[in-house]
Design brief:
Blueprint: E1 22-39, E2 43-49, E3 52-59, E4 64-73, E5 77-78, H1 82-89, E6 101-111, E7 116-125, E8 128-143, E9 151-162, E10 177-192
Antiparallel strand pairs: 1-2, 1-3, 1-10, 2-5, 3-4, 4-6, 6-7, 7-8, 8-9, 9-10
Length: 193
């Protein structure tokens, strides 16, 4: 199956000439957004967001992706350490009281092979929006073998950001907490029938 994620292209064609793309929803039970960030140069600290919602439209025939929107509940972050979790949620980092959501909206994409490509879009953290490029791998596209038996796309997604680009400056200058945040997403997206 050829891989291509190109957003907004469907709008350029008459709707009557194209079949409607299928709508996919991220399976919350099989979606994980996790990140690592350097801690004083000794090791990277792992964090996971537990509440993620998202959907997109994808046409298997034209290989076009559109209407990609993902929302992360910022307060759902865990770093497996209660005091650190509280610190990550406060104003030094995610400031969840004032910025409860992290969002991503895709704006385009480029295929690199049959199963890999990039998706570009706008990531909003702390009310600041920056362009981000995601490296996307299509792991599998098939009918789920049990349970709901819906058609599912399995995706692995990676990117990195500089948290200072979003105004998150705590401990950047003194190097106690790294500026670069490596982000990975593993997801199963179910076709909505």
């Amino acid at each position: 199956m050829r891989f291509a994620f190109v957003t907004a292209a469907l709008a350029a064609f008459p709707l009557a000439a194209l079949a409607a793309p299928d709508r996919y929803q991220l399976d919350p039970d099989h979606t994980a957004v996790f990140f690592t960030v350097d801690h004083v140069g000794y090791a990277k600290t792992l964090g996971i967001f537990g509440t993620v919602n998202g959907s997109f439209a994808y046409d298997m025939d034209t290989q076009k992706l559109s209407d990609v929107e993902v929302t992360i509940d910022a307060a759902s972050v865990t770093t497996f350490h209660e005091a650190r979790d509280g610190h990550v949620r406060n104003g030094d980092f995610l400031d969840v009281a004032n910025h409860p959501e992290i969002t991503f909206v895709a704006t385009g994409g480029t295929p690199q092979s049959d199963t890999a490509g990039t998706v570009t879009g706008d990531l909003t953290i702390l009310g600041t929006t920056q362009p981000v490029t995601l490296d996307v791998t299509l792991n599998k596209a098939d009918t789920y073998p049990f349970g709901h038996k819906k058609f599912v796309l399995g995706l692995s997604i990676d990117t990195s950001i500089e948290r200072s680009d979003f105004g998150m400056m705590y401990a950047v200058e003194n190097g106690l907490v790294g500026d670069t945040v490596e982000i990975s997403i593993e997801t199963e997206a179910m076709r909505m029938d």
